Fold these 4 entries.
Entry 1:
Amino acid sequence: MNNFQTILVAIFLAFFVVGVLIFSGLIDLDSGPGPDNISGKVVVWGTFPDSFVSTAIGMVDNNDLNINYVKKNASTYQQDLIEAFANGNGPDLFIISPDMIKRNDNFVYKIPYGTLPKESFRNLYIDGADIYLDKEGIIGFPIVVDPIVLYYNKDILANEGIVSPPKSWDELFVLNSALTKRESVGSGVLKQSMIALGQYTNVNNAKDIIATLLLQNSNPIVKRGEGGEGSEGYVSMLNSNVLKSSVSPIEAVLEFFISFSSPSDTSYSWNRSLPNSLDMFTSGKLAFYLGYSSELFNIESINPNLSFNVTEIPQIKNSTTKRTFGEIYAIAVNKKSGNLTSALGVANLLSEGEVAKEVSISSSLPPVSRTLLSDKPTDDNYLFTFFNSALISRSWLDPDKVKTKELFGSLIENILSNKLSMGEAINKAQGQFELLLRK
């Protein structure tokens, strides 16, 4: 930016921060200055359907401001961004998830903490949104989160006299004998399953389920290094044991996960010959399904007659902190935007207040704003659960979601096939993570 642009952006951000602080209640005024100098054209890219953002954008659009949302194909989105930025025609704003942070670091305009302090950011958004804070500033303005929750078949539980779904993972070991049905005594063939764990290829969201278990065990998987360790300061924590437990978090998670696919184990409830876990659940043959809140409408459309409900994901027994994995979406600003001032204003408007509420309603995803989450929809159990799950959502600095999905798959398969011992498989995965972070 030239000197004039720098001064202009600084002036705008001063007004912007006042507006944010007023809205959050940190400044108690009847009214305050807002970003009324937003004008021109602002192009926004993302993978959300148009219906998720069209109404919200309409609330921001005015005679002086034209916001153009472009829906991109999720499978090519990152490459489209790289090519657009290289050619100098990238969008002013682009919606990102945590797995895009590392790969887009050079393209993002980061809001300095001198303008919007960390504490002010944290007062506005859920704790999990901290993933968008790095040593240089704020990477993006969080908008919605898609947490992993527990869907359960009400009829299967009722048939076995089970009043409520499990709150802790340990309860699964007690419930399994009633909920998993074999074709015959001693048979490895299953006609009904309690939960889909222990395999990888036919377990929907397997990577994110493992990530959830690691996060619940205080393993961040990847962290930002303080001394420039690794590429761009990212350090693999996959095989770390910060709490000095007798068994490392990754070992504990893998032992728990894999136990559900061992026919000789009392927790046996899944094998690789079964259909995909979503298909099993929607066909009424799976008691518990670990899925995203965004999967609700798909489940309903596949089987409108399925009697199911949703609750928070189980936690570690006696744990004092709740965690689930959540895909936390944010709006990032292109640092080379030709209309940087207006881009910043639009990003702010889409992440707070009535506009952010509209994005949440249109997408049926819980907001990231603490203010909006405080108004829980008590008359809708689905949304009530999603809102509560949003508050405990965490994510991780996934360097490449496609390659890490393969990496976790190889880790599980190496153990299941006995190609490698658990220790050897973990060490191999740790090495692969380190290489990936250096790219």
Entry 2:
Amino acid sequence: MSVISSVKIETENSLKDVSSVTVRRVFQEGADDVYGLFLEGAFVTSKKVYRIDFYHNKLHFDRAPVSAIRPRDIADRNGLKFSHLKAAIRGLASLGENTYSFRAAINLIAVPPEAVVDVYIVAGDSFEKTKIASIQVSRKPLEANHRLPWSPLLLTSMGRSGTTWFMHLLREHPEIYVHEEYPHELLMMQYWTNMLVSLTTPLEADRLYDKWEMRDMKGQTVSPHVYYRRGVLNPETFRYLGSDYVCRMADFCLQSIEQAYKTIIDYSHAHGQTQTSWERVRFVSEKGLLYKDLYKEICPGTKHVFLIRDIRDNIVSSKAFNRKTGRKGFGEATARNDREFVENRCAIFNQRFAEYEACRGEAHFVRYEDMIADPKGMLKRVLEYLGLDNSEAVVSEMVRRASQDNEEMRQHKTTEKTAATAGRWKRDLAPDLQELCLELSAPALKAWGYEV
């Protein structure tokens, strides 16, 4: 059975600063039998281009370098010095000083089995992004033989949206494990899932520098698979590395996640740091994970919670926390001014909305404001979604234990009274920034029941 069942590419032909866009799939024997998608393309633009970015549901998941094509590159008798670019360049209306080409190898396990991948160029002095193509891909789900004895519980949110308090509450249920260390951000599942994607990503032939180093020591990143690239070895090895090997790596990573968490939970339970024993645990929760669709694909029973806060309050809280700690976190350090900081935070907020819309029927939605106003009611609904005991006795005990005086949680707050954190944007956010939030994020705010 083939891995890839269909690929449909649509290019943008009415762009202001980009013309003659060509994006096509590169075929070789076994191309439909692997989880890699090989592409090449070219375009003409008036701006300097830095790279190609690939997005799914507004989330960036891969990139590729670009090459400028100059008149002197048209050197051989066939029309091009670099023969592998001929097919991509053939569709261009003209060649000039601002013609670019690219080659890319996308790991399709980084996106769902049915996905639309958007292709952007990053160009200009402000590194603005322009979409040049959309790729609709259908593939076989990844099959892993190993099964975790519990299910992942994924939390999608933004910093300063109540994630630490939510995890602090959740860990008090006897069948849910959340690592006790403040701010509850142990990312064991993310570590090995990121490894799975990294070590099964095809290597594009243009990226062969330092090819024998598994690890990029300068960027501290894992290199793509050096042998899994087009035009090398033989079709059977190509198929193995792009399919069977990917499934074997999925099993290895799941086994590693299980064993690592077993050692952690056994130790924490034996030393009184958690009431959850390995035998009782039904969910292990982490927040802010990458590749959430991949968890759902290889871990049946995975649950997904979205915790959302009014973006205007989120911005005010982020700034207040930065002032309190003396650090510029949440992107403030790289923003040139308050307006750019708001734009960046709203962009993340809109990303979360796009993610939620894509899995609305299967995920559970929690508003920060509801959690603060009625933590017991919020927990009852979350536990019902998880199929766990949500009796009054259990929920009351969870809230009681989580509410015990805790220095770290006190330091995490930016107001004395928790109830005062809802709606503070009306007094603490400048009117022009309030308007900017509405301009950028009104659809998401309205859909999630916030004042617009």
Entry 3:
Amino acid sequence: MKLPKGGAFLLLCAGVSSTVLANGGPVDFSNTVGSGNVIYRSYRGGELVSENLLITPGFKYVDVEATYILHDTGGGTRTGYAFPVDLALSASAGMDHSILVDEEVPRFEITLDGRLLEYQIRQGFNTDTFLNSYGSEQNFHRLFFTTTFEIQPSDTVELVVSYSVKARFSDFETTKNYFPGFENRYFRYLLDPAGYWGDGTVEQLEIRFDFSELIANGGRTVSLPEGGRWIEETQYVISRNHFNMASAAPLEVSYDVSIWGNSRNLLGQSDDPEECTVTASSYLSSSGNSTYSPDNLIDRDLSRAWAEDVPGYGGEWIELQMDRPMTVGFVGIICGYTKSQSVYTSNGRPRTVTVEIYGEDDVYTETVILEDIPWVEVEKGILSPLVQPIYNSGTGIITDRVRLHFDDAYPGDTCEDLCVSELFVAGWRWE
């Protein structure tokens, strides 16, 4: 078993807490209250010709690349800019800020016409507050990534700021569930500080949200800025001409990663074929290239399944025997033969299942009635929408043996074979 357990100013708020709750607590979160893009010293002798902003939301981090075309209309200038990172005081007090920055902003780079610029991190203090995950106000501490650059008279330059920063979230575990819950990620980007440059307008503005990775992993958008359009299934774009940045409303987006996170956990923390053995009361003989043995239950291949080999439904079982004991917190299955829609509906799918977890002193038994989930085609590795929990606990049971009894089934259209595509058993070992 594998076991566990300027442009614009960007504000990425985080629900931050160091308090562990009585029935659980935070397992992953962001210390970042806010972070920012380039903030220019006010300079009216120039213009912001264009800004192209690419925002790529990920599971924990948001990748940002902002490309600015700046033109000097005066006598040239040496200007300074800063990228702020705001950390919750309760989270950052007494800690090395460089460690926090490495975690919250693991990648940061600024170039001017392709030349990498050096920057420094300076400490500041902000008396403003933000709302944490509990709905109460909390102060934050501000750090700045700072540097300077020169623009010669009448020059046009390209400034690129690229970085990764943690989104706002707080994922929690409880005693009721083995896997943690995944809070929606939140991202906020303030455009109005770009008004420091020139007359506060930009001739051409394009903001592109690239949701390719999110959607490929089963995620979805929850809320988006208004005024944009989908140009592809994964690309949301906002375009403006001669746009007043000084009075621009913030960009805000939130997105759901629960399927992504649950699938990662299922694949990363469940049974390893080298450390367990799966047996069954019966199984169909091979037919051509198709096999139906219980080994198919832990191969993570939805084109193969275990199929029983007795008339009718009910009375069959599968069992997982581990090489050594562990604390089992989750048992779940993918019902049916999920190779294709026709194969899925042709064969039987478990309805009533009784789990037996053989503990040190007794046997834990629970009977559950499963849903008859319609067949859906899923991307490889995105299994969680199909997995139905049979046992789920944040405390678990010490065992080396788990058995599932199939008491009845949702009948297949043409076959009486009861099928299960995958079995998941996850837990902890204390080495």
Entry 4:
Amino acid sequence: MSAVQTSDATDEPQSSRGWRPRLPRSTNEGFGRYSAVLAVLVVMFVFLSLTQDRFLTEQNMKNLMSGVSVISICALGMTFVILGAGIDLSVGGILAISGIFLAKMLALGLPGPVSVVLTVLFGLAVGGLLNGVLIGKAGLSFFVVTLGVSTGLTGLVNIWSNNKTTYITSSFVNGIGFSEFLGIPVPIWIMIGCFLLFLLVQKRTYFGRDIYAIGGNVEAARLSGIRVAGTTAAVYAISGACAGLAGVIQTGRLGAASPLVGTDTALAAIAAVLLGGTTFAGGVGGVAGTAVGVLFIGVLQNGLGIAGVSGYWQQVITGVILVSAVGMDRLRQSGGIGRRLRGSANTGADPLTTETLTDDIPSAQGASTEQTA
């Protein structure tokens, strides 16, 4: 007795809890992608420790790690965006307007914890409803959209704040910036918590796998049943929420909501992500490398500050790092393509289809399965 079960191209894509494409080996976040940057970081740390008496002190280490917490949280959100083959140039504007939003909520008499939660949700809404909808749903260029949103938010920040700094008197918000728990500043705890959360999402959830799939091959991801538009919108919403949280920390550390913050946040976050081995093309990299990139930039800027280098030269050096990171990313991509071409020449395989997501995608033209009982 036998039965034949058929399916054709009209079948609905499988649900988000169903089949998922196997991640190609190239998407694994390998240590080798950021090992060189990590080696330079270790050398730089040792050099500064030996040459600068004020560098390897408990207070300076706290200042260094607290200082990179803002960039780190923004870079975590940026990692997911770039893994999905996008980019978010608006994180600086969202960070700045989130600080102003927080000050306005506190001025209305809302408790500090409620104001902080609303601020993070505000950043999520800005990132999701503006960037997410226009890029994920409407299909507009991520570069044009995020640049336009960044420019618009910068103007709104100046209008809403009257181009003035608003000082914060909330003990809760100021405590986020300056208080300690178990001898470690709160911003560092928040940074560590965010890193562990993003690492969990990246490695253990369907959502994290969907981001890799979309960045690796968007058409293949769509054919596999992944909701590309919704996932893309969610990624930009997450980036906005990270910028909102970073705005809370920045406001707490400054003790004020300033319209001047966030001007170089996006570029610093992008530089950290690229230094950490995540590729601009998407689908390759991860948050572990981003953490290394953030520490690299933080240690360098801290060491230059202690050595008496002016802030302007630090900006120049950060720009050089960004360009170098893009160059490194291009070299990694060129090397990977070259290896695949050489491998295909030896095996006779098609270099454009070897180890891609389409290896695991059922035929869109129809498939049939025979079950015999």
